[in-house]
Amino acid sequence: MSKLDGKVAVVTGASKGIGAAIAKALARDGAAVVVNYASSKPGADAVVAAIAAAGGKAIAVQGDVSKAAEAQGLIEAAVTQFGGLDVLVNNSGVYEFAPIEDVTEEHYRRLFDVNVLGVLLATRAAAKHLRDGGSIVNISSAVTSVLTPTTAVYSGTKGAVNAITGVLANELAPRKIRVNVVSPGFVVTEGTHSAGIVGSDMEAGLVAQTPLGRAGQPDDIAGVVAFLASDDARWVTGEEITASGGIR
C-alpha cells in the first residue's frame, strides 16, 4: 500500500515546474490529484496524462487562486470529483525582480495577490472540506534568508507565507490539520528559464553559494512535499523545511 492511498490532493500552479513534479509525486504515492492551472491548459493536461500513464488518478482544473470564486471552485471540483480533500499544496506563485527604484504598485500587487492572497483564499476554501488529519503544504523560498538584491517584493511575499504558515498551524491544530512550508533554493524550471536566470550570472552566483554544488531540480522539492503530505510527517506542523542544497 502506498502512503497516500485513498487521499485526495489539490496542487495549485501544477501545470509545470515544481508544481507539476509535486502533483506527479503525490499521485505516485497513491493520491488522487487535482492539477490546477491558471492559463496553461496544455501543460496541466500533460501532467494529468503522465499521471494516468503511470496508473494514477488526476484531473486538470482551471482557476486563478487570487480570485475567491475561482479558488473555491477549484476546491469544490476536488470534492465533487474525488469525494473529499486531504492535502492542499499552495504552490501557485509568480516572481519578478526589480531594484527598489523600479518597484511599482502594479508589481507589488501582482506578486502579493498571487503569492499571498492566493494562499489565503485557497486555504480558506479548503479548510471547509479538509478531513481531520489533513495536510497543507505552502511553497515559500530560500530567498527570505539569502536576501538577494532586487527581490524585495518577492521576498516580502514569501516572508508573509512563512508567517501565515505558523499562524494556520496553530489555528487548524484542533482538527489535527498540519500546516508546513517548504522553501526551495534555486531550481531549474520553465519559469527560471523564461526569466533568464538559468545560464546567467545570478545562477552562477547562487550555485557558488550552494554547499551541495548544483542547482535544484523540481523532484528535489517534490519529495519533501510528499513527505509532509503523508502520515510519515504526522508529528510535524508549523515547520519550515529549506530544500536548497544548503544555501542560507
Distance between the termini: 37 Å
CATH 4th-level superfamily: NAD(P)-binding Rossmann-like Domain
Biggest sheet details: 7 strands, parallel
* Percent helix range: 40-55%
* Global mean pLDDT: 96
Helix-strand pattern, N to C?
EHEHEHEHEHHEHHHE
Structural class call reads alpha/beta
CATH class: Alpha Beta
At CATH's second level, what is the architecture? Answer: 3-Layer(aba) Sandwich
Protein name: 3-oxoacyl-[acyl-carrier-protein] reductase FabG
Family: Belongs to the short-chain dehydrogenases/reductases (SDR) family.
Domain Ketoreductase: 7-170
Keywords: Oxidoreductase
Give a written overview of the molecule:
The chain is globular, with a radius of gyration of 17 Å. It has one domain: 3-Layer(aba) Sandwich (Rossmann fold). The protein has 248 residues and is of the alpha/beta class. Helix 4 (105-127) runs parallel beside helix 6. The protein has nine helices and seven strands; from the N terminus they run βαβαβαβαβααβαααβ. 48% of the residues are buried. It has helices at 17-28, 41-53, 68-82, 105-127, 143-146, 152-172, 190-194, 201-209, 218-229, and strands at residues 8-11, 32-37, 57-62, 85-90, 130-139, 178-184, 240-243. A seven-stranded parallel β-sheet has the order 3-2-1-4-5-6-7, sandwiched between helices. Helix 1 links the parallel strand 1 and strand 2.
